[in-house]
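A note on notation is needed here, since sequence and fold are reported together in a single record. The reader may check this reading against the record printed directly beneath this paragraph.
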Amino acid sequence: MTGLEEMLAALKLGRLSQVVSSWVEHVTDTQMSYHEFLEEFLTEELLARQENRIRRQLQLANFPFAATIEQFDFTLHPELKRAVILRYFDTSLITETKSLLLIGPSGTGKPHLAIAVGTKTVQLGYQVRFVTAQRLANLILGAMTPSAKAQLRHSGLSCDVLILDEFGYLPLDPQIGPVLYEIIAGRYGKGAMIFTSNKSLPTWGEVIGDNTLMMALLDRLLHHAISLLQYNLGRKAQAYQVYRDLLTEAQRQGNRSLECQANFMLGSMMVDDNVDLSSAQQLLETAGHIAEEIGDLITQINAYNDLTYVAIAQEDLTKANEVVGYAIQLVRRQAQRGKIAQTLFVQSDVAVQSGQWQAACAAIEESIVLFTADDAVWQPQAYA
């Protein structure tokens, strides 16, 4: 090892200590400037460190196998929209603390999609932990002391994304429910979650043997499920029935928050499918009223955004402008960058439909600025 290689190694520039000789030859042959040499030389070290970090985080994530979205065969599941899945492959999963629920029969690739999202999240610089429901149950039952249970809860709370796989494949011990709820409630509004399950939402109470506790857990999950993927592989009628059952159970228990979410999910699905828009309007208006009553500003904004599209579909542009205007007022109070940008896109759609091209361009321009702004310079007080 040369003296230069030894110095680079002492400075913990491991990759550069390995390639410095070849770089010296390259600089001599190409006559690079000092600035170009330093920039490209140091870039090689940065890239090597990034690769090592991703490799370590993938190991810590504990994925059972490697999976990427490119490896998922959408031709086998044409009812799954690639564009919808790709919504979860950016930083918004983390920054908006979303929940992704992949629900459907066995053998349909739910773990593959969950791992693909997790892998992409690691590549974006975040920490992910993958665990099956049965493995988590065994860890909870094996934690005999308070300190062991506290450590287990911490591991479930400290990562950026927690993936819980195979929830519902086997019934869980009654001791599991309270600890699972502590983890979910602790992550509420702070960390993203991905669940895969072969059980429909209203039957999740059977899994832990406590329906009331499970409804409280679903309340936490669905509140931040900005876009919930009901993965039923073409069973659209079944997907609608899941939310109707959930709505009925929420009303029976008097759970206003979950009732709000069920109304919103049902209405939003109808808008996406462009079916029974009058019923969708009633559901979304109910969700908006309950959200205002309980102080759930996010769901209130989401409901008004979807009501805007209902008005557009009904060719009532006056109503569309009125609704999106109110949504804009709400979202600027909420001052969450992604949500403001999303609502501005809705406003631009209304402006286009109304022939207000200048207003449409202004809304799109502002939304793009918000989407691309650096977190370090984002000033929410400017929108409050």
